[in-house]
Amino acid sequence: MSIRTVTTQPFSDQKPGTSGLRKKVPTFQKQHYLENFVQSIFDSISPPSGATLVVGGDGRFFNREAIQTILKMAAANGFGQVLVGRGGILSTPAASCVIRKYKTYGGIILSASHNPGGPDGDFGIKYNGSNGGPATETVTEAIFAKSKVITTYRILEAADVSLDQLGETTLGNMKVKVIDSVSDYAELMESLFDFAAIRALLTGGFKIKFDAMHAVNGPYAKEILEGRLGAAAGSVMNAVPLEDFGGGHPDPNLTYAHDLVDIVYGKDAPDFGAASDGDGDRNMILGKRFFVTPSDSLAVIAANATLVRGYTKGIAGVARSMPTSAAADRVAKALNIPCYETPTGWKFFGNLMDAGKVTLCGEESFGTGSDHVREKDGLWAVLFWLNILAVRKQSVESIVREHWAKYGRNFYSRYDYEGLPTEEANGVMTHLRDSFASLTDKQFGKYTVATCDDFSYTDPVDASVSKNQGIRILFSDGSRIIFRLSGTGTEGATLRVYLEAYEADVARHHLDAQDALKDLIQIGLNISELIVRTGRQQPTVIT
Ligand code: G16
To answer: What pLDDT sits at residue 497?
Structure first.
């Protein structure tokens, strides 16, 4: 077996977005495209000879081919060992768990998360460091810089490695160890949660439905929820991972997880419903005919953390992304712990968790997690809720309503305008920036604009600065409208409008979020000129 140095040309579009490089599958299938990016990763992280790498993906179309290429390139770039999930599968939180547990140099995760898969669907790749978390912006910028000047990559000429049996093989001088994709993760969950209490709940008449959306978490949820915790057979639906997610859009929200939503809002609804996404890091939590917003979910988890085994000592602090509602801030204030506001992207939480500043993190984009790994974690959030439910013996709805009664309710909604021409989306953002001066102090009905800015973040640990992270229109009563361009789409631009209004009055907590926010929505549309500039009368998705 010999190492081949292949001459290549740079691609100009390999800039990692919110979470790694995401493109259509045919783009990744272009000659040298994947190899260029992988070599750019290896050149940026300079692994010591003999280092161990973790590789796994969410099983979507092109996962297997990509893994074979990465293994051969790792062997040619001096790695000593690669740990791969069986069949090339690892959920994103499981990959983070394995990197940390076996103290590896880092890992490569193959996923386009909640984006659809298949031959014409999306694919993605990202690097996670030795803390198990997504590479920081400094590293992703270095990778992008390398990708723009790359001239050669190294690859071992060898046959493909079998990934379907547990055990060790060799590839050149490198060991390839195929590991069970589920066991390390399940063991970690068992150390954090009271499985006996949850088992008693689930075998005592409390019914659940978990929608794995034909994505990576199917086997994890089967093993943990039905296997170890005794949930009735069939509690996990769409449990078989498919390369194209069964043609679905594996994003756990009210629109795309409609199979589950129909069940949870239907006759004989289960007491608890949940879903996770393509790579298993996102989650949606539902009670019987009741939706918990991701922002509220983070706040409820923070407020109830000491009821849960792994967190009985209390939490050091909480972090949320800027567009996420301030519900968690209120809990942090009551607990007298810090609350950090970061840009969108899980990579911004890593430093805070490594420094022990925060225990819990969350995002409005259906992401919740803790310092047990350095990724958001869909099943972890589900187990956290089940553990709270097992202790409090109340319904999801009554827990959330009590929470609102104590802290007030942050009404929240997000409007997504997907697939916009990039110039039109940029035009909306530029128009808003140009309006800052004229908007300040302006009154719209009961709302007065206090300030407008483009969010900028200085990392409190390494002092790195991230600018232009979303336009904030902040009102004097604490309500907010945020405009931001997504960094995870693969077609045109996706413009997100985030709306939040605080309501202390319990008598108004029953309102539907869309009714409570209707004035703000109108203000947002007017000041952004979104409809005129994009021609879109309606958002693609409302969450
Ligand atoms: C990724 C990031 C999240 C982010 C989300 C949405 O999630 O890890 O931190 O909130 O994208 O980002 P955007 O608004 O830029 O599309 P995932 O689940 O796609 O990896």
So the answer is: 97
